[in-house]
Design a protein that fits this description.
312 residues; alpha/beta; Rossmann fold; UDP-galactose 4-epimerase, domain 1; two-stranded parallel ribbon; 9 helices; globular; binds nicotinamide-adenine-dinucleotide
């Protein structure tokens, strides 16, 4: 199949593109490089540098696309407050432009990278897709709006929106200290040994390893059963920040941390009810957090050493 992967220079988009190419698909990759890196883009992908929020750019994309995998977007809740209009345009306007492209060119399906940020404050229980959504950040509001646009056009362009929880693993941007809880902590731990934690250690999240995310997205490409659905993409496991610290300390014994004020729009705690994911895609074999953290830390250590050597 010919797949359009947006956000191909970013963390998740580049990994999905890599796997799609390995499976023998043709990949057209799009990114504006506002956050992603050229070096992340798999060599065999056909890369087009463009900003999807500018509708006149969309003409540069080949028209014979089978499936769109839309991962491009400003990806941080915290950063979304710096310039909410830019966030809306990078996330939601881009999605609308792609929906129009998909309809005009009879694309079979669009898969969308939504987020657990749509939920906002919720009770301490596995959160299902039926829960009311009250986003707390401009980012979450934009993701929810994108989902709604996808629902409006679902009869012309079938969709699947994955509400991804905290994705982590090799390939994540260690230099961005405002996006990705695990990558931020790991980056501080490896460079300075002290992690300034923004918010309480009793907060909780659902951490999912990148390889599991890639597998689910690839399964959804092939599955015709999963159409016009919003699906949680987490492990269903609740992990407190304290527990994450304890596990990181086993890997990096000399790390310490300080507790600081929350970032705006931060959810206190959220983890996924994954019944729908299991029923529809049969996926339940998740990488344990301890294993995922270890392989991420090994990768990060090598990467930091390489950067130090390059500078020297
Ligand atoms: N990482 C997570 O834990 C997580 C969780 C839930 C949802 N998501 C969503 O998944 C997607 C991928 O996340 P990621 O962690 O790989 O983020 P990332 O920042 O590494 O990748 C996003 C990519 O999109 C590109 N981009 C941004 N705006 C664009 C535009 N208008 N046109 C073209 N390219 C543009 C950036 O340059 C970047 O390479 C994002 O939409 C993010 O919001 C991520």
């Amino acid at each position: 199949m010919k797949l359009l992967v947006t956000g191909v220079a970013g963390f998740i988009g580049s990994k999905i593109a890599e796997e799609a190419l390995r499976e023998g698909h043709q990949v057209i990759g799009v990114d504006d490089l506002s956050q992603g890196q050229l070096e992340n883009i798999p060599a065999k992908a056909q890369f087009i540098q463009l900003d999807l929020s500018q509708s006149n750019n969309i003409d540069q994309i080949p028209k014979d696309i089978d499936i769109i995998l839309h991962l491009a977007g400003q990806s941080s809740g915290e950063i979304s407050f710096d310039d909410p209009i830019l966030d809306l345009s990078k996330n939601t306007v881009s999605t609308l432009n792609l929906i129009r492209f998909g309809i005009e060119n009879r694309v079979r399906k669009i898969l969308y990278a939504s987020s657990m940020s749509v939920y906002g404050h919720v009770d301490d229980k596995p959160i299902s897709e039926h829960e009311d959504c009250h986003p707390l950040s401009c980012y979450g509001a934009g993701k929810l709006a994108s989902e709604n646009y996808l629902k409006i056009y679902q009869h012309e362009l079938p969709f699947v929106a994955f509400r991804m929880f905290n994705v982590y693993g090799p390939g994540q941007d260690l230099s961005n200290l405002r996006q990705g809880m695990v990558s931020i902590y790991l980056s501080y731990a490896l460079k300075n040994h002290t992690i300034p934690i923004k918010g309480s250690l009793t907060r909780f999240r659902d951490f999912i390893y990148i390889d599991d995310v890639v597998k689910v997205w690839m399964q959804a490409i092939h599955s015709s059963a999963v159409t016009n659905r919003i699906l949680n993409l987490g492990t269903g496991e609740k992990t407190t920040v304290q527990n994450l610290m304890d596990q990181l300390k086993e890997i990096i014994p000399n790390l310490s941390w300080t507790e600081n004020e929350n970032t705006p729009g931060d959810q206190f705690g959220v983890y996924a009810d994954i019944s729908s994911l299991k029923n529809l895609l049969g996926f339940s074999n998740f990488t344990p957090l301890s294993t995922g953290l270890r392989s991420f830390a090994e990768w990060a250590q090598k990467r930091i050493q390489k950067k130090v050597l390059q500078k020297g």
